């Protein structure tokens, strides 16, 4: 009987690292570990707003710029909306629309100018141009 460690059908995607550092059967690559903070952690640390999982996916997929100046303007726009008693707002920063749940300062989604053409924003009580 074949050892479970050497049965390729039992190796999960990404592989496992052998305890003894030996080469795995089939020449599979060793599992890689992440170095440094995740994209979500960087955004959370750099801004007073947080980003939902959906928003992070949209930002990454659409290649939306979320540099320090954009984050600062977004944060200021959310603060202005909160000052006016907004609950759900669209904050426009340089052609990008960020839909924000103002109370908990969470970006729900992000839409760039290219994808905004056919987009309809619903359940929004405020709009801010930052």
Question: Which features characterize this protein?
Answer:
single chain, 130 residues, alpha/beta, 2 domains, 5-stranded mixed sheet, 4 helices, 18% strand
Structure description:
The protein is an alpha/beta fold and 130 residues long. It has 2 domains: 1-33, no CATH class; 39-129, no CATH class. The chain is 29% helix and 18% strand. It has helices at 39-46, 53-62, 68-83, 113-116, and strands at residues 50-51, 88-93, 96-101, 106-111, 126-129. It has a 5-stranded mixed sheet with strand order 1-4-3-2-5. A hairpin with a 2-residue loop joins strand 2 and strand 3 (96-101). It is globular, with a radius of gyration of 22 Å. The model has no long low-confidence stretch (mean pLDDT 80).
Number of strands: 5
End-to-end C-alpha gap: 66 Å
Q: Indicate the radius of gyration in whole angstroms.
A: 22 Å
Helix content: 25-40%
Helix tally equals 4
Strand line-up of the largest beta sheet? 1-4-3-2-5
């Amino acid at each position: 009987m074949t050892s479970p460690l050497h049965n390729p059908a039992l190796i999960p995607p990404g592989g496992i690292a052998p305890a003894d550092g030996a080469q795995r059967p089939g020449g599979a690559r060793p599992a890689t570990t992440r170095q440094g903070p995740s994209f979500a952690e960087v955004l959370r640390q750099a801004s007073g707003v947080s980003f939902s999982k959906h928003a992070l996916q949209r930002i990454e997929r659409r290649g939306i710029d979320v540099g320090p100046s954009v984050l600062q303007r977004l944060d200021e726009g959310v603060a202005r909306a909160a000052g006016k008693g907004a609950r759900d707002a669209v904050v426009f920063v340089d052609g990008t629309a960020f839909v924000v749940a103002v109370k908990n300062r969470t970006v729900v989604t992000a839409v760039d100018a290219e994808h905004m053409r056919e987009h309809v924003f619903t359940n929004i009580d405020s709009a801010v141009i930052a």
